[in-house]
Each structure stands twice: as C-alpha cells, then as structure tokens.
Amino acid sequence: MASDFISHMLGDRQTVGIDIGHYSIKLVRVFHSHRGNIQVTAVDLERIPEKTLEDGQIKDSEKLREALSKIMARQVSDREKVDIVAGINSASGVLVDKLTVKVPKNANEDAIIVQTAQARPPFDDQDNILDYQVYDRQDGEIKVNIVAAKNALLDSWAEFYKDSDVRLNAIDVDVFALANVYMMSAEEEEKKETVAIFDIGEKKASLVFLMGGFFHSTRALTSGSMESVINMLCRHLGIDVAKCHEIFESDKPVMIDGFSEADIESAMQLAFEEVVGALEFGIRYFSNSEAGEKPSKILLSGGGVSLSGLCEYIEERIGIHTEALSPFEKVSCAPEVVGESGLSKALVNIYAPALGYAMRKF
Questions:
Q1: pTM exceeds cut of 0.85
Q2: Which residues contact 100 (CB under 8 A, 6 or more apart)?
Q3: Are 309 and 322 spatial neighbours (Cβ–Cβ below 8 Å)?
C-alpha cells in the first residue's frame, strides 16, 4: 500500500484502454513511469455474444456489462488506482475533420474555434457534442482536429460505463488511437512521410491518413471489412464462417471438399479484390483533396492482418509498400504479457486501438 502511494505521489500512473468491438472487448493496461518510461503490463480479450452490438449501438447492455465485468475482474484489481480510457468507433456516426482558424491576440480561442466549427455543416447539427484538439500554431493561425458525435451515442456509452461501475477519465476515438500508436513507434524520418493506416475490422473498414507527423483525416469505407471477405468466400466456396476463420488462421493450405487449392486461392483473390477496391477508393479521395499526394506506405491494422498474403497482394496491385502496423514492436512489454511464443501478428493488431487509448497519461 505504501509503495503504491509513493509511486502515485511521484507521478507514476496506470492507464487502462478499453476497445469494444462487435465480437469482443479488448483491454490493454500500460504503466507510465514518472521518468517517462512506459510498459504494457496486461493485454486481454473477452468475447461477447453476437448482436450485442450493432453499428456501434448497444443492443443488449446486460450481456455487454457481464463481459466487461469479467475482463475488468481479471485485469484491474482496484479500479481507483487506474485511469480508464474507452473508445468509440469513428464509423458509427462520429465526424472528424480539420480546421484552420485565425485567432486575434487576446481573443477567446476556445469560443472562436467552436463557433467556426459550428458554422460548417455537418458540425452545425445541434444534436452533436463538439470537441477539438490543437495540433499546430503558426503566425496567429491555429490548426485543429474537430470531432463531433451525437449526444445520444455518447450518452448511451457514458451511461453503460456508469452502470458497469467503470469510472472513465476520457472517451477517445479509434482513429486517433491508431494514429497515436503509429506515431509512438515511428522513427523521426518516418514521421515526415504521408502514411495510410488501413483498419480492417469485423464489420467496418476505415482509412486513417497521417501527414508530416500529424493526423490528417479519416475515411470510413462501405466495403473491405472482414465480413465482406467472409461473405465472398461463403458464397463462392459454400462454407460457413467458422471454416473461413480456419482458413485465415492456418499457416498451411486448408482443404475444402469439392474444391482444389487453386479454387480456394481464386476465391481469396476475388475477396482481396473487393478489399483493394475499397482501399483504392479511399486513397483516391485523399489524393484528390491533396493535389495528387499519395501515401508512401500503407499499414494494415485490425483483424484483416490475419488474411495471409493480403499485404503482398495490396502492394502488387496498388504499387505502395504495405505491411502490418505491428503496434507492440517498439513498446516495452512485461514478460507475462508476451509469454514465451510472443503475441501473434493478428492479436497484436486487434489490440492496437486499446493500446492507443492506454498510451494516454493523466
């Protein structure tokens, strides 16, 4: 008890990041030393029943609360001794944009930023809660990231955590968490590049663009998720979801009755084409808004990292170097976290948003 008290007085903190997706809750706990060092001290996952969540909306709060209680009981012995950050999915009705504002000397900076943002559709919707983050100041101009979310969406999540006896220090957005994870691990020269993080989730896919070391923008995609890949394979190979995941997770070719290895590979390429089509659309949209600028690198994140051969396929088709995000690669982890065999590439990327939330120190 005394050592915990002294540690806290010195400025040591622990932050727990919670990422709730359609099929699981991911938790990452990070120790922040007062000297500036960090270490991941826990990663965990708890499955949730199907249809508990739909499009970021809670449909069965009791089942979700039960799953959250289980994972918190395993990893957080005293909730009063940690800071907790939970995230919401940017593809579920969250608006993100950039804004440049001129602020006269001695003027009310906050009021000017908010008023300027609220004058622009769709940020003018009175049902939105508006927030912003300043990322650059030069010659009287302030550059900010604007975030808006529906009151009802935030209220429902805030109420859920309150009912679950989880005291939140902050609610964050997944795209900012992914950007933070990359910036934390990138070399100084890499931070100057234009980078696209392609997050392939179970039900949603999105692109996060970074330029010159700052978050630039995000683009929700209408296709390219794991679900779209699974639907394509089920349709062409007559298999179920479980068999699809067996194909994704196996290091060796998985045989299917009535189909040759070439047939399976052909079906995977059709599925990959849909993913690439969504990616190309997002990059084209970004490029048109930035005078032809294209990312020099694509980083895959989310469950899509488990799709064997996807990185190589994207790089060959689009001509841009593509690799997995690998969020834990340059972060110190306690031995009990990684174990003898280490975290699998797929699991590492599933935990990326939760790690981004847990990187915040209060």
A1: yes
A2: 141, 142, 143, 144
A3: no
CB atoms within 10 A of CB 347: 16
How far is 203 from 174, CA to CA, in rounded Å?
14
Residue 234 CA to residue 243 CA, distance in Å, equals 9
Question: pLDDT of the chain along its 362 residues, tens only?
Answer: 345 655 655 679 999 999 999 889 999 999 999 898 999 999 999 999 988 998 888 999 999 999 999 999 999 999 999 999 999 988 777 888 888 999 998 899 999 999 999 998 888 888 888 999 898 888 889 999 899 988 888 999 999 999 999 999 999 999 999 999 999 888 999 999 999 999 999 888 999 999 988 899 899 998 999 999 999 999 999 999 889 988 887 777 788 988 998 999 899 999 999 999 999 999 999 999 888 899 999 999 998 888 989 999 999 999 999 999 988 888 999 988 877 666 776 678 899 999 999 999 99
**C-beta of residue 248 within 8 angstroms of C-beta of residue 222:** no
CA angle 209, 210, 216 (to 5 degrees): 75
Sheet of strand 128-138, all strands in order from the earlier edge strand to the far edge: 94-102, 141-150, 128-138
List all residues 6 or more positions away from 234 whose beta carbon is below 8 Å from its beta carbon.
240, 241, 244
Residues 33, 35, 38, 39, CA torsion sign = negative
Q: How far apart are CA 49 and CA 285, in angstroms?
A: 36
Phi, psi of 53 (to 5 degrees): -125, 145
Please give the helix or strand (H or E) that residue 189 lies within, else none.
helix 188-191
Cα gap 347→337, rounded to integer Å: 12
Instruction: Give the containing element (helix H, strand E) for 227.
Output: helix 226-237
Contact 70, 46 (CB under 8 A): yes
